[in-house]
Every structure is written in C-alpha cells, then in structure tokens.
UniProtKB/TrEMBL annotation:
This is Receptor-like serine/threonine-protein kinase. Its main location: membrane. One of its GO terms (molecular function) is carbohydrate binding. ATP binds at K467. It is a single-pass type I membrane protein. Keywords: ATP-binding, Disulfide bond, EGF-like domain, Glycoprotein, Kinase, Lectin, Membrane, Nucleotide-binding, Phosphoprotein, Receptor, Serine/threonine-protein kinase, Signal, Transferase, Transmembrane, Transmembrane helix. It is an enzyme of class 2 (transferase).
C-alpha cells in the first residue's frame, strides 16, 4: 500500500468515526454529506472545523449582532481572520455551508449560491483544515482539487506560496476603494483598484530588499522565517525583504493587505497581544493611494489639506466622474499647485512629451481626463481618469504642476459650491439607498441623541451605521451642525461622518461602522456583551479619547464642545481604537468666546457643576465629563453605584480618599492585573481628579491632559478640597507652554 492509499484509508477511517458522533464541530476533516448553518454552532462560537493542532478554525463569524455571517478561517488564539469566502455576500443564521455528495463545497442562501469550490463531479472525498491554516479539498488518491492557499483574500501565511495569477484584495477603504497585490510582468506590485488600475509600489523599486546576485523575473513569493522571499520560475532566490529582527522560535508570520493599501506583518503567536511590525509596505504613509480623501494633498507628518482652489467644493471634490456628456464650454481646469507628486507617477508612462500648455489642451480635449501632472524639465505630461490623494514632492525634487478638471460657470472659472451644500460635506445618499442598505431599518444598533442607529450593508459589503434623526427643531439643528461641521473634520479618534440624506422629511446621517461597539459594554462589570478589557487596552482608550477631545477643543477651525462625554459615546473599532461619537449635543464656539450659556444638555453623572447650576460653561465642562469617564475606565464601574459600600458608592469621593491615604491603586478594577511598577494607574487617577475639580479654572485643558497621560509632563498633586479654588489654573497648568 503506497502513501497516498494509506492517506485515503486514514481519511475514510476518521470520517467514519466522526459520522457516529452527533457533534457539529469536527477535528481535521469533513466529508461528503456534511451540512451546517450558523444557528447550529452558537455553542462553538461558529467554528465547525478545527485543525488537528487546534491552531486554526473554520466557521461562521458574525459581522453584526449574530445576524449576518462570513465563512472564515481564523487563528484560534486571537482570533485573527486569515481567509474569508464571502466578504461581499454575507449569509443569514438559517443559511448553510454544505459539502454535497457530488463533491461540491458551497455556501447557500435562500437566493442561491454565494460561494463555491466549483468541484462538482470531480470525485471529492474529504476536506481538511491543515495545521498550516490551509483548507484543502481532496479527490481520489489524495489529489488536491481546491485549496484556500490558492485563493487568498487579504492575508498570506508563513510558507504559503503566492504565485503568478493569484491576487490579494484589501477590504474597501472609507471611499469604497480596494487595493490589490499581484505578480505582473515578473514584478510583485500593489495597485489601486480604479477602473484603470494605478500601481503605487513594486518590490523591484523598494530599496529595502536585499539582492542574491541572481537576476530574473519574480514567479513566486513566500514568507519564510522573518523575511519575504522572492523566487524565479526555477525557484532560484532573487530577493529577500526582511521585515522583522525577530527570527524567534517558530514564529507564525502573516502579511496582511489593509484597507488603506499598506501591507503589515504580524506574528500571530503573540495572540491577543499581536501588533504589527514597524516595517510596512510602502514605507511612506503618503505613498498609498488615499492616505487622505481624493484631491487632498498629503504632506510630512501625515497632514492632509485641501488645495485652496478646491475649498469651495464639498469635501474638496469637484465630483466629476467624466465630462464626456458635458458641453465643452462648461468644462475648465483649476490650478491645484506646484511642487506636487502623485503615487502612480513613478509607475506610469507619460501620455505625451509636451509643455504645460499642450498638456492642458490634451486634458481638455480628452473627456475622460480628470487631472493632469506636468513636468517642465522632462516635458512629461500625465493624464489620469481617476485621482486619489496628491502629495508634496520630496525634498530636492521640483515635483509637478497639477490641474484638475471642473465645471465652469461660463466665464472660465469654476462654479461655486451650491448654497444648499456645506463646504466639506460628505456623500449625499438618497433615502431609497439607505432604506435598502438597512433592510428597511431592521437591525437596530442603538439609540443616540435625537435618533436611532441602524446597521447598513452596502453593495460592496461595506458596513456603515445609519442614524435616523427623529423629530424636527433641535433634530434639524443637530443635522446642520453635524453635516456642516463634522463632515469636514477628520481625526483618528473621531467617528467619521461618511454621508447624509436630506430628502423630504427624512434626515439621516451615515457613519463609519465601529465593530466593537461602545465602551460601556466592555468596562462595566454588569455588562457581559464582550471580553473584559485589560489595563493596556483601557489606558490606550483613555489616551485616544483625550486626543479626540483635545482636537475638538484646540485644533478645529471652530472650537467644538462635545457636551455629552460618557462611555456610551466612546466607540471602538476592530483594534479597540477609541473614537468619540455623537456630536448631536455639540455647542460651537468662536475662539474669541471663552464662555457660553446654553440650555441644559448632556447626561447626569457626567455633567459639570456649572451645567447643573445653569452657570456659563466652556470646554472645561467637557474636561469634567472626561475626568468622570477616566475614573470609570480605571475602576471598571459607574461613577455612582448604590450597591457598593457607603465609602465606595461615589467613585470620585472614594478616589480622593484613597489619594489622601496614598492607596490610589485600590481604585483600580479588582479584575485587572497590573504591574506594581506601572505608574500609569496612579497617573490616570490623579489626572482624573484634576479634571473633576469643581472650580472649572483648576481643570487642565485637554492638550495638557494628553501630555500628562503620556508622561510628557509631571502630574501635580490634585487639591483634595474645593476650598482650594483660589488657586488659579495658571498656577498649576499655565507655567509651561502647551
């Protein structure tokens, strides 16, 4: 009996044993006749097949509230998704995965198949989830009919060969653009998935690779040890790209193409503590297609700015997809700037060799051209049909002159933005679009200020949160505030407004979807909706929230007071990055205006004293609310809890008492383990006690809060009595420039 026959006999014996056990979850193998749906697997967290070494699992992963599922392979210890069958076509609880007796493996909904191995009639005998993470469908004599390693999604694993003809595809970014990795013409390249693809990186042009004195064309690539190796057709090593100094004991590396278009490297064996290596592809943040939105200019320090000539357009975008159906007289060119660059220029061939005037004429004469880049020195003229983010030219380079096509107002100049559209406004959706995306507003995610929030699933699979404003008056005021102002604000710690609807009586806001939900679900002991957050994660959430609030107070063109800082308004993404949400209660202030009187808003328990007593308020009222939030993050409980002992029932009083007794670490959530030498616990509590001072002038500005939390400046001992109110804020926080 040869090895292949022994393997088939082994598979048959295992499958025979498994069919006698009425348990949905299988180890290693499944065979023809296997069928399972998400509703069968709730007690197994959706996993129906586990590799023999228990490292990888295959099953259904809920996208939202256990109602929409993807078929994934995951690394069990994280769990990190390494392969997905149906990212753009989610299935419902009652839909199923099947391995039929004809040898085909598929996902089926009420409307038909959404994914299949297309192996009907090929004699499939078993499907195995191997210890490498590869899902393999075998035929007679061990012949491989299909394998997930040959159909990667956005991740490559250690030892997985990436060959010509394969493709990695990222999830859609905030503008629904996906990026791709392929081997093209003997070179590994990354490109933006525009209608005409635009390359933005290649291994041949990356100076960080090491050569092996062998010339040739790239035929395959694979992760081996701590490097990405590139081979020719004869498996001769061409290049190595070393991405980590950690060649440690048996690391399990994964290369992931993120939605932003960058490739990051992770050691999955780090489990819940896995973080990306410092080395990333491409090396420069501004070299990905859309580090900012289209037409914005990316510059050093990851800054994004709109060219002054496009400031009058909503979100800096003339919103011209083509001018082929517009009269020639209605089209003009708008000057963007000089000393500019664009990610695709180094990988593109000039459309013509000409001076600037001829380049402009060529773009105006080509109805598909939306942007041009001209270099007077080389006389190179590039025309593009779609455009991502621009970037400033590197030091020592003259860069390019750029123009973009706009609709003219008849006298050769661009048309001003409509008075009905605010500058910086996001995408406008029709009500029917949102009605369809939310499945008639059927999946409610939560209740926010002035309205309910529903899950929206868009045609490309993108998940968004749709807020349906209820009522008029203040609801309309909130709508105008959020769309007109928040739509123009972009910060990593603020939930991004993606779009809106203003149609008849309907007023809706469309936000990015935050997969981990709100912070209150994860820190309070009574809530069991998710895992308990460790101290490092909590501290990072506290710092991120502080940075978002500092941005609203100090860095926006118009100062913004949030007015409702609380755990329910701190949302978390897949990586537990904190983002402030719900600006429906925000009160705008001119920078010249230090105090403002307004009606009572916010949530009791987080309201500063000046709110309650109807006194004038300022951004320091947000600082007070943040202090309460910070205490709750540290303590893992609400600031007022009558179930606690009288000493502990009001968290701020208890924290002040523990400070007097030099036992501040007693305030920390008892469920957490903290290093005795970790000074961040004491720092966080002292910062919180400064923030909740009754005298608003004693409270630090949020920029100083961030500095103190990050250890950039000392944290003085907070006053333990409000009788110390005569001490001005300048005494404690005005001596150093912020």
């Amino acid at each position: 009996m040869d090895s292949s026959q022994r393997r088939i006999l082994c598979i048959c014996l295992i499958l025979g044993l498994q069919t006698c056990v009425a348990i949905p979850q299988k180890i290693g193998l499944i065979g023809p006749g296997f069928k399972v749906s998400p509703m069968d697997l709730f007690e197994y967290n959706g996993i129906f097949l586990v590799s023999n070494n228990s490292v990888f699992g295959c099953g259904f992963r809920p996208q939202v509230v256990n109602t929409a599922f993807a078929l994934d392979i995951i690394y069990m210890k994280s769990p990190t998704v390494i392969w997905t069958a149906n990212a753009g076509s989610l299935i419902a609880t009652s839909d199923h995965f099947a391995f039929d007796n004809d040898g085909n493996v598929y996902l089926e909904t009420q409307n038909g198949l959404v994914w299949s191995t297309n192996t009907a009639g090929e004699g499939a005998t078993a499907m195995e989830l191997q210890d490498s993470g590869n899902l393999v469908l075998f035929g007679e004599r061990g012949r491989i009919l299909w394998q997930s390693f040959s159909h990667p999604t956005d991740t490559l694993l250690l030892g997985q060969d990436f060959l010509e003809g394969m493709q990695l595809k990222s999830g859609p970014n905030r503008n629904s653009l996906s990026q791709y990795l392929e081997i093209k013409s003997g070179n590994l390249v990354l490109y933006a998935g525009y209608e005409t693809p635009q390359i933005y990186w290649s291994i041949a042009d990356d100076s960080r690779k090491t050569r092996n004195n062998v010339s040739g064309m790239v035929h395959s690539a694979s992760l081996e040890s701590n490097s990405w190796n590139f081979y020719d057709q004869k498996r001769a090593l061409l290049w190595q790209f070393i991405f980590s100094d950690n060649g440690g004991a048996n690391p399990l590396w994964a290369a992931v193409l993120g939605s932003d278009g960058s490739i990051s490297f992770y050691n999955l064996q780090m489990g819940d503590f896995v973080t990306a290596e410092a080395v990333v592809i491409p090396q420069d943040f501004c070299s990905i297609p859309e580090p900012c939105d289209p037409y914005y200019i990316c510059s050093m320090g990851n800054q994004c700015r709109c060219p002054s000539s496009l400031n009058s357009y909503p979100n800096c975008n003339p919103e011209l997809n083509s001018t082929c159906n517009s009269p020639t007289s209605s089209v003009g060119l708008s000057y963007v700037g000089e000393n500019l660059d664009y990610f695709a220029l180094g990988f593109s061939t000039p459309n013509l060799q000409s001076d600037l005037q001829a380049c402009q004429k060529a773009c105006l004469g080509n109805c598909s051209c939306l942007a041009l880049f001209s270099d007077n020195i080389s006389r190179s003229c590039f025309l593009f049909e779609q455009i991502g983010s621009l970037r400033t030219a590197e030091a020592g380079s003259a860069g390019y002159v750029s123009y973009v096509k706009v609709l003219s107002n008849g006298d050769g100049g661009p048309s001003p933005a409509s008075e009905e559209i605010f500058a910086g406004m996001p995408v406008r959706f029709s009500y029917s679009d949102l009605h369809k995306a939310t499945d008639n507003f059927s999946i409610k995610l939560g209740q926010g200020g002035f309205g309910s929030v529903y899950l929206g699933v868009f045609p490309d699979g993108t998940l968004l949160a749709v807020k349906q404003l209820e009522g008029i008056g203040q609801g309309m005021k909130e709508f105008r505030t959020e769309v007109g102002l928040i739509g123009s604000i972009h910060h990593v710690h603020l939930v991004q407004l993606k779009g809106f609807c203003a149609e008849g009586p309907h007023r809706l806001l469309v936000y990015e979807y935050m997969a981990k939900g709100s912070l209150d679900r994860l820190i309070f002991k009574d809530n069991e909706d998710g895992p308990m957050l460790d101290w490092d994660t909590r501290f990072n959430i506290a710092v991120g929230t502080a940075k978002g609030l500092a941005y609203l107070h100090e860095e926006c063109e118009v100062k913004i007071i949030h007015c409702d800082i609380k755990p329910e308004n701190v949302l978390l993404d897949d990586n537990y990055v904190a983002k402030l949400s719900d600006f429906g209660l925000a009160k705008l202030m001119d920078r010249e205006q230090s105090l403002v009187c307004t009606q009572l808003r916010g949530t009791r328990g987080y309201l500063a004293p000046e709110w309650i007593f109807n006194h004038a308020i300022s951004e320091k009222s947000d600082v007070y609310s943040y202090g309460m939030l910070l205490l709750e993050i540290v303590g893992g409980r609400k600031n007022s809890d009558p179930r606690q002992s009288s000493e502990k029932s009001y968290l701020p009083s208890y924290a002040f008492k523990m400070m007097e007794e030099e036992k501040l670490k007693d305030v920390l959530d008892l469920r957490l383990e903290s290093d005795k030498n970790d000074k961040r616990v004491v720092t966080a509590i002292k910062v919180a006690l400064w923030c909740i001072q009754e005298d608003m002038y004693l409270r630090p500005p949020m920029t100083r809060v961030v500095q103190m939390l990050e250890g950039h400046c000392p944290v003085p001992q907070p006053p333990t009595s409000n009788m110390l109110g005569s001490l001005s804020s300048e005494d404690k926080f005005g001596s150093e420039e912020i």
